[in-house]
Structures are given as structure tokens and as C-alpha cells.
Fold each of these.
Amino acid sequence: MSTFTQVREITLMNLRSIPERLAPSLVIVVGIAGVVGVLVALLSMSAGLGQTLGATGEPDQVVIARGGSQGELSSFLSIASMTLVKQDPAIARGADGLPLASGELIVITEVPRPGQDTGANVSLRGIEPVGVTLRPKFRLLEGRMFRPGVQELLVGSGAAQQFAGLAVGRSLRFRGSSWTVVGHFESGGAYDSELWTDRETAQGAFGRSGVSSILARLRDPADLKAMNERLRADPQLDVEAKSQDAYFAGQSGNLTATIGVLAGIVAVIMGFGAVFGALNTMYSAVSARTQEIGTLRAIGFGALPVVASVMAEALLLSVLGGLLGATVAYLAFNGYAVSTLGAGFTQVAFQFAVTPGLVLQGLLIALMIGFVGGLAPAWRAARLPVTAALRGG
Amino acid sequence: MKYFGLIYAGLFRKKLRTSLTLASLIAAFTLLGLLQAVNSLFSGAADFLGASRLITQASTSFTSPLPMRLLPRIESVPGVAAVNHSQFFGGQYQEGRGFFPQFAVNPRRLRETYPEWVMDEDGWRRFISTNDGAIVGRNLAERYGWKLGDIVPLNSFIWTKAGGGRTWEWRVVGIFDGINEEWSERANLMYLNYAQFDEGRNPGARGLAGIFVVRIDDPDEAERIASAIDAKFQNSSDETKTQKESEFQLGFIRQLGDIGLIVNLITGAVFFSILFLTGVAMSQAVRERIPELAVLKCLGFTDRQVMLLVLAEAFLLCLLGALLGMLLASAATGVLPPEFPIRTDLRVWLIAAVSVVLLTLAVGLPPALTARRLKIVDALAGRHEQSPLERALHLLFRVGSRREAEAQA
């Protein structure tokens, strides 16, 4: 028999005997499922946040904020600067001949999560009418638009889901006055975590004279560099334009890194636990098959096929475990909606996303654990002295 | 205790298996210790603050600064002992590589509202009389090697100076400690003199105080005083929200989301895996030793004694794993720098202890009951029943394969 046939025959024989050792075999599956499940669930959190923030921007639009500011919240532009910036030739114009640019004011408000009395920071964004045009994915889900001059709010779908008291018709109190929720909207991205109103109404109510940022559409995305040079050269201005998609995509970095470190630590420690479990299982599998292995060696089977059969069993069980873990993580967490503090110090609502890439990553870890857990027992099986093995070890 | 030798011998009958199981247990309990320590940080972080201080913030958000003119009106509320104002400065040191919180406050009032910070009399005098003065916590001063008189440039991402710059220079005039160990551990912040801060910033922002820190005489009066303060500013453009300092801190942490839930889910997954693993190892160990257990019974051990022996073995294994794992976790959290105050405190050890008991019962009880039911004759003859876990698994598997066979037919 060729080595390959030997490997195939022993492996098949070995796999067929797994049902007789069901409980110990399941140790590998369950242990690895735990590691992979936790890892995939944790990483699906940062994947979900990345997807939400990545879906926020349009490549041909820019966010203009004060130079050196870390986000819209710490930025401030006077009305005069705003008017000046909007006249930049790089900015596209609408059918009415006016620039497609919306000066927007961000105010942080506190809205409690359901069942809590401490508030979470939620952005209230005052927009200009053109602001809706600049969000092509904007869609009213319920109710109607807010009217300028009246303290009315549109609530993003993510915010409506994560925070209490934001149903259409309810009212909120900010700074001694009452605001009515008149509708819910969806725009596919970070804006869904916000409350929207008319900019001038917000300026009046919160006593702010200027705006936080300007969202503008460019005639050509390539104009961004020239535009920034013009803006920098203007002594009246201290502003900086950033591409909208880059601006939002960059915001997930910090949290992604934190989750990555956490997931890494948890996976390594759990992985150690699973490796010891796998070693235990494979050692006992080898010791249960001692006589069988001895017989095989006595009738002429090589050491390599024996090693291969043990490794194949370990790897097969770990892949099963990995698939089980990824499936549980998918069923339990895919689409699970949460919100957390984003880069702008306000809440970002997003959903966990178990992506194919993450599942693949999980399976790779599973295989690694299976490999490490199978190696030493396989080595022992191959080196069993034939005579001793035949006598039962 | 006289059976300890017997238990120990039983446990290490198969050294390899027991060591591997033990290693898995250690990994699981290390993780449990670390995760629950993180959980402790988030659930009990503000406990040390007590209830003797309230925080008054703008009802819209604590990021909207309240104007200074509210201060005398808050001071006039009966039961208020002292009031300070505090503005988060948001400064970055060394281009963002060093982050620590700074607050612009009134130096004299700081001393009245935070008696927990201790500093020599000269330090307080210098802080009060130096316009660009700053005091730093002991830990922070040690981390950056600051001495009295050093200039610390901070780049604020919130506050621009009147001239347009964002780099503020502060002179270290004092280094403060905590009144006890708990507070000393938290001396990682910097207080700035409000005088230079207000004078230097954009004229449009001058006169804004930030939030107010209110120290009260009687913690039991906290609720009443908080609502009395808020009532004063109701329906004004500066509506306030006053809460206990501990709740204010907790609110910050809650902003991050339901961390407790995530941590508990991971702990649950770890616990389940380890339960399965240890359970299988234990039942294997007992099954291999059935003849030995029968011999014990022949020698006069009662059913109960044999059952307890097996249970004790499981307990010893879990206890050993938990102890070593928790020690590892404690060592790991012990070497963390002070800005990550994650500690395996009493609560974490209690959780570990409860886990040991539950784990022992879950993995030890089924084989222990098997050992108890053992008939000497059957056991010596090599006829033994399957463990409950194995029976369930085999049943499941057989039903599955029978269905498959039927489907094929």
C-alpha cells in the first residue's frame, strides 16, 4: 500500500470510531466553539461600528470644520466665516444657483437609555434645508419633516431604538423649552444616532451665534486639495476641509483598537484553556487506541499514517467546533443593536455584524488550536513501541 | 482531613490528564478574574466618592457650560457647605501621547469642596496666588517627572486662546496626595487656576463656569438639596440637573454601553466550556477507577463516604485551578499602571468562590452519584453503567443515526 492509501484508510477508520468516544471528542468541539464564539462576537462589534461609520459619508462631499479640531463638537465657525467658505468655487451649486452647502450646529443633549435615569450624550444637529439633499440616503420613516422656527425634532432610527421617550408625538425639554418629536428618519450611517432640527431654531434656542461645521458637495472630489489651499491662504479663516467618508471612517479607529486588544487577550487565554482540553482529548483517544495502533504497526503500517490520522481527527473536531462557535455568534449577535460613545463624545448606534471574514478568522484560530492540541499526542502515537502497544501500553 | 492522602492519590492517578484539566481550569479562572475585575471597575467605580458631594450640570448636557452667576444662588441653598466650579480643559500633553484629565477650578474653593486632596499649606497658598498655576496629583507628577516650577504646555482641543492659539502654559505650583490609599491611587489629575483660563480664552466664552461641585453637610439630605437647587433654575435658559457625584461618574461609564452584559456573556461562555471539559475529565477518571471504588466499598467504606471522596476530588481540582488562576489574574492586574485601576477586589474573589462551588457540584455530583450507586459485585465483574452525560450523548447520537438509516431505506 502506498503511504497515501495508508493515511486514508487509517484516518477513515479512526474517524468512524469517534462515536465510541463521543464525550471526550465533544470536549474539543465545545472548547473551541467557546473561543471562536467569543472572538467572533467581540470582533463583530467593531465590524458593525466600522460598517455604520463607513456608510455615512459620500466621496464627493466634504466636512469643513475649524482647523485642528478633533471633530464637529470642538469646532466653531462664525456666520461670517461660514458665508465666506460657502462661496468657494470648488463647491457645487444647486438648480437654484445656491451653493450645495449646509452650515450645521451640533449641540450635545442628554437622553436616557430605557430603564436608566442618567442620560447618554446624543447629538442634536441643526441643519439647513439643503442638508437633506446632501444626505442622498435620507428617508422619512414615520411622521413628517420639522418646520423651521418651531421647536420640532426629527429622530434618527438608531436613536429612536436605543433611547427612551423618542417616539413620534413625545416631547423633550432642553434649556427651559419643550421640543416635539414630529418624525423618524433613516440615512444609513452615523447620522441615524442623532436628533435633527432646523439650524436657526437650534441657534436661537441654545444661544449659539455660529455653526459647528459645514457639509458641502464638491463639483469634483479632486478639487479638495486646491480648496484646502485656498482656505488656508485666506487670513480671515481658520478652517480645514476633510472628505466626508474619510472623516467618518476615521472615527471608528479608537474603539476598533480597544476591542481588538480586548478580544486578543480573551482569545489567547481561552485558547490556552482549549488547547489543554484538546490535548487531554487526543491523549485519551490515543491511549484508547493503543492496541489498535500497535496492531496496525505490526502488520506494516508506517508511523506517518498514524500521525496523520491523529492530526486529522484533531483538526476535524476543531473545525466543527469553530463552525459551531461562529454559528452561535451569528445567531445570537448578528444585527444586535447597541450604542456606545463615539469619537465625537456622543452616542453612535450600530449593529453587530458577523462578516464572512470574521468567520474565516475564527476557523483559522480553531485550526491552530486543533493543530497544537493534536501534535504531541500524534507524536506519542507514532513512537509507541509495537510490542508494548500490542500488550495494551 | 485524614482522607486527604486518598483524595490526592485519586486525583493524580493519571498525572497527565489531571495536569491538563488543571491548566484549563487555571486559564478559565484567570480570565474570570480579569473580566470580573473590569466589571467591578464599571459597577463600583464611584463607590468611594460617598454622597457628600453633588454635581450641578446644565440639564441639556454636562458639556454645555453653566454661567458663573449661578454660583451664589447655589451657595444660598440651605444645607450647602461649599461650592466650586469646574471646567473640563481637554488638554493634550506631548501631542496627545499623554492623556490625563485637567479641570479649571477656583483654587480656594477646591480645598473646601475636596478635603480629600491634601497638600502642604505653601502649596495651597501658591496655587491661590499664581494666576497660571496648576497643581498635579502625586502619581501624575511621578509619571512625567514634574517638579515645582516646571512649565507644562497643554494643547486644548476645546479652548482657543483669545489670540487664536490653542497651546496653554501652566506652572506646576503644588503636588497633592490623597487623604487615604484609595484617594492616593486616584491622584492622576491636574487642577488649573481658573484665573488664567478665563482671562486667556476667547472673549465670547468668558464668564462660563462649567459644572458646579457642591459639598453638602449631611449626605442624607442629598436628594432634598439636589431638587432645591434644580427648582431655583427651572424654566430659565440655564436649567440644571443636580445629582450625587457618584451618579454623575456612573453616568459617564454608562455612556460606553452595557459593558456588564458583554463581560458576563464572555464569562458565561468560558464557564460553560470549562464545565464541559472538567465534567468529562472527572467522569472518565471515575469510570476508570470503578473497580478500585468497589474495593474501597469492600474494605468497609460506606456509599456516602465513597460519594464524598469523589466529590472532594472534584472540589480539590476546581479549588486548585481557581486559586492559581485568580493569583495569576491578581498578579496581572497588579502590574497595570495606576491609570487602569482594575483590581481583583473582594467582589471578584467572591464570584470566583461561588463559581468553584457551582463547578464542583456540576462536574462532581454526577460521577459521585455513580460511585455511590455502585454495586460491589457488578463493579468487580466489570459491569458498570454509563455516566448520565454519556447516556444522553449516546441516546442523542443513536436517535440521529437511526433516523438517517430510516431515511436511506
Amino acid sequence: MEYSVKPDQELTAGARVISFLGRMFVAVIIPLAAFFVLYRGFLFLRDSDAPRGIIALVAIVWGVGGVAGLYWIFNSLVERLPPAWAARLQPFVFVGPAMAILSWYLAVPTVRTFWISLFSRDGPPADLSLIGQITSDAFVGLSNYAAVFTEQLMLEAFRNNLLWIIFGSTTSVASGLLIAVLADRSKFEKVSKSMIFLPMAISFVGASIIWNFIYAFRPVGQTQIGLLNAVVTALGGQPHAWAQWVDISPFNNLFLIIIVIWLQAGYAMVLFSAALKGIPEELLEAGRIDGANEVQVFFRIMIPYIRGTVITVWTTVVIFTLKIFDVVWVMTGGQFGTHVIATQFYRQSFTNRNSGFGSAIAIALLIAVIPVMIYNLRQFREQEAF
Amino acid sequence: MASASRQRLLGSLFVNGVLLLLVLLWTVPTLGIFVSSFRHRNDIQASGWWRLLPYRDWQTVRSINPRELGLDSTGVMEVEGVSGTFEQFQAGILTPEGERLTWIGNRRIGNVEVQEREWTVNWNFTMDNYRQVLGGQSFEFTRPDGTVQLVPGDNMSRAFLNSLAVSVPSTVIPILIAAFAAYAFAWMRFPGRRFLFVMVVALLVVPLQIALVPILRDYRALELNGTFLAIWLAHTGFGLALATYLLYNYISTLPRETMESAFIDGASHFTVFTRLVLPLSVPALASFAIFQFLWVWNDYLVALVFLGGNPEFELVTQRMAAIAGSRGSEWHLLTSGAFVSMVLPLIVFISLQRYFVRGLLAGSVKG
């Protein structure tokens, strides 16, 4: 480490004091000045009515430059310390911000959300101590959880999420696998894969609008402008508002699930495609020579070989569908029997402002992903390298 | 031999046929809104966008002025050998020759048009929808009958800039912070290193819903609600676990000799990080950057919770959802707006697809 200061004994006492004061000055003034500049920038962004483009530009420079500047300042402060202290503190300058933000935004909120879930609508009264909070009227124990697992709309949401997981994940995985296998044997592999992959760049809100247009409904007798109803009426069927079609509830959810399959199949396809390319050609040839037909080769050799990838993709899609929110919120707003856990969470927490109930729903979501978390941690522990 | 090559041909036809069908299924929905976004608003409401393709439709061949024939539009009229009331003519009456007579216009000054079925296409395209959806104040719209109507614009351009101001820092800030942390985990030894990294791994799959209620309380207390800073920090917090994990996987595989020779030359950790590790990690940084950018640009929930309520700071997803909610049948706005909201992620995605795929394969799976 680069660190060159003359040995202390060569300096006079006065010089040492001045050097010490200088260091203190630098250590205090630079961060203060940095924070002041950042704070002014923040005020400008919050209160300015400058043109949108300028605000956007200032925001980008301020945000990105600010973070880079803070790292630089703190690092140079630490490097000014005696070498032993610098070596001890520097790692924390590097990991500190990341860990602080992760703690504030994810780690601590799990505990705080659990705590809030034990209270009624407004959460724990802020002005009381911990004991005071528990003994206050707002403390309701586990009754929010009892409501989560008994309320009519919540049960509907759990049922729908189950539909989402069963149909959504299975079909995404199956169609991704099918496309990967077909594309692998086609001359048009690259083009077809990019086309199917493209929806991954589209937001859920955008995808909802795209599919709402496919499902667009006009009463019988009028020209159908939605593709699905146009096809159905051309074939002699009745037009329907598919996602809002309550008569077939809960299967109107399938029309929402299709949207996510459309978005997710590309992800599954990419992972499967890479995995399939990793299967040694000799293995497949050996199977074919032994008389296996293509279907048998697929189920007996390919699938077992890429089993790890299948599990990864499957869990990813399951976690994804578990938290599905935007599609339902934009398409139906949870009406027509389409509520899911995440829309219920939003409705309870922010529309009804019942943060106790909302937090209990969030904890239910967390519990649902804990098996995956444990699996990840176990995988990590098996990596000896760390 | 002949049957073997025949079978191969059939097999390839089957594979490519099914693949083509799937590709069509995956592209037609987007194509539909893309085509519709350029159609006139009345056309969108009157017919499907597939009218882009040739279809058979009634075309007017000539026009008859009923007043010149001395017809009384209140009773039964006879034109060209068919008879009917005004209402029947308005709906269209088929003649034995396969033509159709349709009364166009109102009872007093309308005409009867003689129409024949002909192949045609509807290729009347316009940029009006984009002008209206992007515009801020108002937009002049000319009706088919020539009258001019003033309609308010939908401010998508403002939302677009807001989305940009949110997405760029929300992508760069977590990358920077995560790269520092990943470097420390990979190349520094410090107490608590293993514990902190286990925390990162555990937080990979934690749903962000868990954080919304407490963080919103903090933001209210700090008066951060509805500011850009609030949403940058939120996206940083929610993306940081994945970013740290991915970048650690990459940075820890950098060649040890290169690093050690730099330290022997007297370089500090900070210098090694900025001069050596960051440039070497560009592929990993790029793949996470694309991933995070798409995620932030397309996010709706986080924006709704932390920026909600302030129309000044609305993002494209919020704007689109608002139009879909209040004017869900105005397809000329929805289609063009959806396309405006999609154009940037699509460009980023298509031009940097290789990095994105690499990131996915390295385990870019967000909690």
C-alpha cells in the first residue's frame, strides 16, 4: 500500500499539531462540503421547475456523480490514516454502503414488516416504547394472519396464485423447452429465438395493453377489432370479454396467465437452449444407434441431462408468478375473480391503508419463498471456495 | 435411401412449420399494436388492424342522388330495381346482381351509393396518434367531416424523460455500489466477510413487497416521498443483492497474478479497483446493467408506491396504466403510448442482446 509520511520524530511539535489539525480539517470539511453540495442538488431536483430535460440531466449527473464522489472521498480519508488502521477500515468503506442499503431496504424490513403485521390498521403506535406498543390496543397478535387465511378475497387470491403457478410455470417451461429443441434443429434458429425472446424487453403494463387489444370485445353483430374475438366469430363462435368473463371463473385467469407465458417463455428458452448445446453429441448418437427414436432421445437422454437447468428455470418462474402484480392490476384491477396475493397486498396496504393486514400478506409471500432461499444457501455452502 | 431423405425432409418441414407457428404466436400481438398505432383513430375503432392485408370489401362504384329521382325518404323507395325503407337502405340492400345499395349520410341530403365487392387494403397511416400521446398541452384533431377538435395531449414525452431520469441512476448507482462490495468480498479479508455474503445470498429471493410498507414510512418521515432520490435508492436497494452476487461471481474469477503484480507495484486497493477491476469486468457490468435498466424502466409497482400521486413525476408505465384505466377503449392512444414506452427498452435489448443472454446464463434472477 502506498503510504509515505516522514517519521513523526523528525517533525517539531508545532508541525505535528499543524499536521494533525490539517488532517482533522480535511477529514471534517471535505465530507461536509460534499454533503452540502449533494443536499443543494437534492433541493434543486425537488423544488425546481426547470425544463424536464435539464432536471433529468442534473438528476443523472447528481445521482451518479454523487455516489462515485462519496466513495472517492471516504477512501481518500481512510488512506490518510496510519497504515494499520487504513487496512482495517478500507474493506468497510468498500462493502459498507452496499450492506447498509441492503439492510435498510431488505434485511431489516422483514423484521419491521413482521412487527407491523402484529398490529391493527395503523401499525404500532410510534410514540410508545416496545412494551407500550405490545400492551396498547393496536396490538392484535396473530389475528391479521387468521384473516389472511380465512377472508374470502384472500382465499380467492391464493387459489388464483395456485392457478398461476400450475399453469403459468408449467406452460412457460414447456413452451420454452419446445422452442429450444425445435430451434436447435432449424436453420432459422437465430431469427426465431430472437423473435420469441423479444417480449422480455416489454413491461408488464405494455404487455397488458398488447393483450388487452387481442382480447378487445364488441357486442355480437359489431365488427370485432380484437384478434381473438375476430377469429372466434369468423369460426362461428360467440365473442367474449375473455379476461372479464366471469361465467368461466376461475378459468378467466388463464387469459391473464397467457400474457406472462408470452413474456417468460423467452427466458426459459435461452437457458434451455444453452443447456441443450452442452449435451455431448456422442451421447445422443449412442442413443439413436441403440434404436431410440427422437421422442425417446428427448425424454430419456436430454431431459435427465438438463435436469438442473429445468429446476432452476422452474423455481425462477414460480417465484416470478408468485409475485405477479402488474398484469392483473392493469388488466382487471383484481375484479372478476382475478385477485392474486400481490394485488391483495397492494389493495390492503395502500388502497385500504390497512398496513397490519398488508404486512401479514407480505410475510405470507416471504414464507412462500423461504424454501428457495434455503436451497440457495445450501448450494452456496457447498461451494468450498468462499 | 430415398425414403430416408424423404423422412428427413418431412422432419425438417415439421420442425420449421411448428417453429414458424410459435414465432407467429409470439410476434403477432406486438405487430398488432405496432400497426394500429399508425392507423387513424376512426379506422382503429371501425375495423381490425389486419385490414393491412388484402381483404374483400364494398367499394363505391357510383353514387345516386335520391332527390334527383324524386324519391320520398319517409316511405318505401325503389332504386335500381330494389325497394326498401330509409332504414333498410341505410343498412344496405343487396341487389340480385351482387351489388349493394347503401344510403350514406342523413335523410335530407344523403346519397345512395352503389357498391361492389372488391379486393382492397387499408393503408391509411398517420402520425397523429403519436403527436397526441406525446404532446403536453393540446392537440388539434381533424374529424373526417372537417371539423377541428382540440383534445388534451397525454404527456408521454414528459413521462419518457422522467423514466430516463429514474432509470439511468437506478442502473448505474447499484452497479457502482455492488462493484465495490463485490471487489471487497473477492479480494479483501475482513471480519464478518462470510456472514455478510451469506446475507447477500439469502436476500436474493426476498420479495420486495416485504419492504414497501416500512420504507414508505421512512420516506414519509424523511420527506423523501415522490422524489427521484427516493426511487433511485429503492431500486438500488432491491437490485443490490443480485448485482453484488453476480459481480462477485465475475470479479472473483479475475486472474490472481494480475492483481498481485499490481499490489507489488504499490497500487492501493482503490487504484486496483478503478484502474484494473472495473475495466476488466465490463462484460459482467454490461449484462447486469441491461438487466437492471429493463427492470427499472418496466417497473410499475415500485413507482406506484414511491412516486404515486405526483403527476409531475409520472413514469411511462404509470402514464400507460393511467390511460388504460381512464380511457381503456381509446386504442389510438393506448397503442401509440405502448409503443413509446417500449421503444427504448427494445433498442437496448436488441443491440445488447448478447450481454443480456450472458447475464441470464450467469444467473440473473431477481427476487
